[in-house]
From TrEMBL:
A Pfam family reported for this protein in Swiss-Prot or TrEMBL: TraB_PrgY_gumN
Family in the record: Belongs to the TIKI family.
Major location (coarse): membrane
The protein, known as: Metalloprotease TIKI
Cofactor binding summary note: Divalent metal cations. Mn(2+) or Co(2+).
InterPro entries: TIKI1/2-like, TraB/PrgY/GumN_fam
Subcellular locations according to the entry: Cell membrane; Membrane
EC number(s) given by UniProt: 3.4.-.-
Organism per entry: Fulmarus glacialis
Keyword tRNA processing: no
Amino acid sequence: QQGELNSFLWTIRRDPPAYLFGTIHVPYTRVWDFIPDNSKAAFHASSSVYFELDLTDPYTISGLASCQRGKGLYADYLFNAIAGNWERKRPVWVMLMVNSLTETDIRSRGVPVLDLYLAQEAERMKKTTGAVERVEEQCHPLNGLNFSQV
């Protein structure tokens, strides 16, 4: 039931309203039906939307790709992008990439993650968009972990 779902939506200011919405980095088709109506209504009523990263910015995408050093969509390329050269990758990246080697995740390649889907919708609706982080702020901490921290 919609009324029983956790909205992951927090009101942080009332006039004008401002909200904080917790997202997850999975294909939006896996979670969209479970996002409560109040969260969708707040998104549609908003004039500005800010995301963790600007996933519509080519610089952000190239930065993420070089951060993980993964490219490719076809089976061999996909496997090599995820698991190839694993000896030289930081253990935390190997863990994250191996966890994404499930049939469901492989089948959903190409479907935008929830953040990207919302960013694309925001642009389509002519909303002001922005980001609160830069790609370097995410890459450096993960790449900087030592073995005991991993």
